[in-house]
């Protein structure tokens, strides 16, 4: 009956979505294409859209550590540093976020809701406002220019939100399941690990993805805290590339693509968990 | 073995006491039903026995071992929850074998026991399914299976049938009772449904406001209710209650109509509450005058609502009714079926009615 207007609606929505996607993704795509072009092609007029002779030269250059204009940019090292920081702080955030989230969801202690709300307040500060105090603090602790320092810092920044996501998802898991596990002979820890956490997987994955992406792409704190070249991260490397190669844009394109790759992969594979985790509790399932 | 003894169980949430000293003896193998309206403390009592709630005072023992300080896993008690509480991420077999896995039994042993339990509950074909793929009745059976694989000393059921539709409820009721007759494991079953209590129990514990109102077999409670509350709670349709006055050995209504001789000695002029069940009255040539207000045939029997000057009286009869609404009739209480209760305390005035 009303099949036709409905189809029309879908087509309209699809078109709008397409336009928005192109608008948002075009610069990214442009950069991606640039990474396969040669220096002369980038400089020529009229501008070519598709690479005329696609080449991996820029990527090869990226992975052969060379002195570029007097500055050493060791991309394997940068990537390794970023991975170390993002993975370690994600693990820390997951472990403590889960324990804290469980406590907030299940245990009764005075001031529980107040503290849980307070956790979110820490998210309300503009990061830039914390730059200077954080720098002072980290210097006092002797943690400036150290990967461990950044791991601790990112974990501290990431924990409140992770705790909050995990706590709200654990609240949705019926208490009876745990009680049932305890009647079956489980300790509290066993019931948490064997019954509660498997059911909270979407929330755990969401928290992990959220944190990993944040840690992987963080720039401001990394740039003021890390000084020596061997400690720098991909975002710093990318920033210096933009400064270094104003003409050789293919290098910037290649670097940006590599930095974006893990994030794209994470969203590609984690998408269904990501939306489910963030929406947990929105409706009764 | 699994006899359960409760002594002076008290439970408070802050300043509010919800269990006011419960005493109860359950023999090994007995099917005991805790019944009462919501908020009477029956679930709290059950959860205290399970170890999911701590008690404020008193003693819970199983086979003469005091267990109230033990955590649930050390009590050797299994529980079936109202919403089944099946682990959604485990198959039926895994759900049923979970307790054995925690007890570190060998996989071989687990498989054997799960299979045996599945056999009893007719779950063999469903062992590889997940809970979400099961119907309500099947979930209920898995929840029971999870309890029986452990062969515990005591089974606890917390309103296990309240999520099922009426027909399935009747069927599961029989299944649980059959299961009990087969396994003979001490069972404590909580429900607010008096029919469930009547049909399943060896022993019913009627609770109200954190107190035990009466303990007895279903027929004892039905025939000799200790209070107006129990009399009204057990039996459907409920017992009729009217104000009455002692007159010699008999009871009269407040409008001086003769009700009959009660099951207790009443002083002349003593004000009491008279009670009689709908099936214990019959239409007669003379007696208490009433008008037929409503006729509800259910096939096997017919329910009549009779309106006297002051009250509406429910009567059920297996006779075919020739009266129609508005007719003037007379009814009498069948001899020996007239209960009477103290109008102040609402306790039964019959011999033994003061007990409990």
Automatic annotation (TrEMBL), chain A:
Recite the UniProt keywords alphabetically: Cell membrane, Membrane, Sugar transport, Transmembrane, Transmembrane helix, Transport
Domain ABC transmembrane type-1, first and last residues per copy: 79-270
Superkingdom of the organism of origin: Bacteria
One Pfam family from the UniProt entry? BPD_transp_1
- Write down the membrane topology: Multi-pass membrane protein
Q: What is its main location?
A: membrane
Question: Any idea where this protein resides?
Answer: Cell membrane
Positions of transmembrane segments: 12-33, 83-105, 114-135, 147-170, 191-213, 249-269
Any one GO CC term of the record: plasma membrane
Role played = Part of the ABC transporter complex MalEFGK involved in maltose/maltodextrin import. Probably responsible for the translocation of the substrate across the membrane.
Q: Which family does it belong to?
A: Belongs to the binding-protein-dependent transport system permease family. MalFG subfamily.
The protein's name in its UniProt record: Maltose/maltodextrin transport system permease protein MalG
Q: Which organism is it from?
A: Halocynthiibacter halioticoli
TrEMBL record, chain B:
* Keywords noted in UniProt: ATP-binding, Nucleotide-binding, Transport
Q: What's one GO BP annotation on this UniProt entry? A: carbohydrate transport
Which segments of the protein form a coiled coil according to its record? none
- Name it: Sn-glycerol-3-phosphate ABC transporter ATP-binding protein UgpC
The UniProt entry's GO CC annotations, sorted and at most eight, read: ATP-binding cassette (ABC) transporter complex, substrate-binding subunit-containing
Q: Which InterPro entries match?
A: AAA+_ATPase, ABC_transporter-like_ATP-bd, ABC_transporter-like_CS, ABC_transpr_MalK-like, ABC_transpr_MalK/UgpC-like, Mo/tungstate-bd_C_term_dom, NA-bd_OB-fold, OB_MalK-like
In alphabetical order, the GO MF annotations are: ABC-type transporter activity; ATP binding; ATP hydrolysis activity
* Residues in ABC transporter domain copies: 4-234
Protein's organism: Halocynthiibacter halioticoli
Lineage: superkingdom: Bacteria
| PROSITE patterns recorded | ABC_TRANSPORTER_1, ABC_TRANSPORTER_2
């Amino acid at each position: 009956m009303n099949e036709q207007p409905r189809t029309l609606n879908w087509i309209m929505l699809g078109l709008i979505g397409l336009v928005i996607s192109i608008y948002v993704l075009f610069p990214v795509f442009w950069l991606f294409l640039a990474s396969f072009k040669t220096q002369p092609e980038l400089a020529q007029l009229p501008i070519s859209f598709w690479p005329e002779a696609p080449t991996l030269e820029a990527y090869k250059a990226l992975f052969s550590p060379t002195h570029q204009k007097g500055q050493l940019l060791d991309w394997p090292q940068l990537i390794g540093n970023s991975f170390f920081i993002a993975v370690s702080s994600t693990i820390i955030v997951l472990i403590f976020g889960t324990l804290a989230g469980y406590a907030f969801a299940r245990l009764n202690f005075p001031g529980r809701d107040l503290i849980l709300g307070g956790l979110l307040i820490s998210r309300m500060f503009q990061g830039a406002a914390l730059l200077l105090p954080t720098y002072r603090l980290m210097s006092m602790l002797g943690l400036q220019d150290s990967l461990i320092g950044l791991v601790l810092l990112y974990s501290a920044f990431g924990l409140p939100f992770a705790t909050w996501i995990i706590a709200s998802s654990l609240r949705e898991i019926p208490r009876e399941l745990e009680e049932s596990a305890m009647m079956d002979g489980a300790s509290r820890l066993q019931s948490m690990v064997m019954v509660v956490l498997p059911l909270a997987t979407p929330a755990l994955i969401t928290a992990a993805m959220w944190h990993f992406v944040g840690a992987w792409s963080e720039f401001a704190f990394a740039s003021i805290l890390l000084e020596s070249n061997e400690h720098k991260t991909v975002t710093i490397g990318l920033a210096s590339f933009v400064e270094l190669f104003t003409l050789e844009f293919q290098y910037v394109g290649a670097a940006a693509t590599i930095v974006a790759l893990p994030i794209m992969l994470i969203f590609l594979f984690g998408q269904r968990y990501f939306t489910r985790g963030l929406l947990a509790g929105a409706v009764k399932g | 073995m699994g006899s359960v003894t409760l002594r002076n169980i008290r439970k408070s949430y802050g300043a509010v006491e919800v269990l006011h000293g419960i005493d109860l003896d359950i023999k090994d193998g007995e099917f005991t039903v805790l019944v009462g309206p919501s908020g009477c403390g029956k679930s709290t009592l059950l959860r205290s026995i399970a170890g999911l709630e701590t008690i404020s005072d008193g003693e819970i023992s199983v086979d003469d071992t005091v267990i109230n300080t033990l955590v649930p896993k050390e009590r050797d008690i299994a529980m079936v929850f109202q919403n089944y509480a099946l682990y959604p991420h485990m198959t039926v077999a895994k759900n049923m074998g979970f307790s054995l896995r925690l007890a570190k039994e060998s996989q071989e042993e687990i498989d054997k026991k799960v299979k045996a339990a599945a056999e009893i509950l007719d779950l063999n074909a469903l062992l590889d399914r997940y809970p979400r793929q099961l119907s309500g009745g099947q979930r209920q059976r898995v929840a029971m299976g999870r309890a029986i694989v452990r062969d515990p000393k005591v089974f606890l059921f917390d309103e296990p049938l309240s999520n099922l539709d009426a027909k399935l409820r009747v069927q599961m009721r029989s299944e649980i009772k059959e299961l009990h007759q087969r396994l003979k494991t001490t069972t404590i079953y909580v429900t607010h449904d008096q029919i469930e209590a009547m049909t399943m129990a060896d022993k019913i514990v009627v609770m109200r406001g954190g107190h035990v109102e009466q303990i007895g077999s279903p027929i004892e409670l039905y025939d000799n209710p200790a209070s107006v509350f129990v009399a009204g709670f057990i039996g459907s349709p409920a017992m009729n209650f009217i104000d009455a006055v002692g007159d010699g050995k008999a009871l009269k209504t407040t409008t001086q109509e003769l009700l009959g001789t009660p099951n207790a000695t009443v002083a002349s002029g003593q004000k009491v509450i008279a009670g009689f069940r709908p099936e214990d009255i019959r239409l007669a040539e003379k007696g208490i005058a009433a008008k037929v207000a409503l006729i509800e045939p259910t096939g096997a029997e017919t329910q009549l609502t009779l309106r006297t000057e002051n009250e509406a009286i429910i009567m059920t009869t297996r006779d075919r009714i020739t009266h129609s609404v508005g007719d003037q009739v007379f009814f009498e209480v069948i001899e020996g079926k007239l209960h009477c209760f103290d109008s102040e305390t609402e306790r039964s005035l019959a011999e033994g009615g003061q007990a409990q």
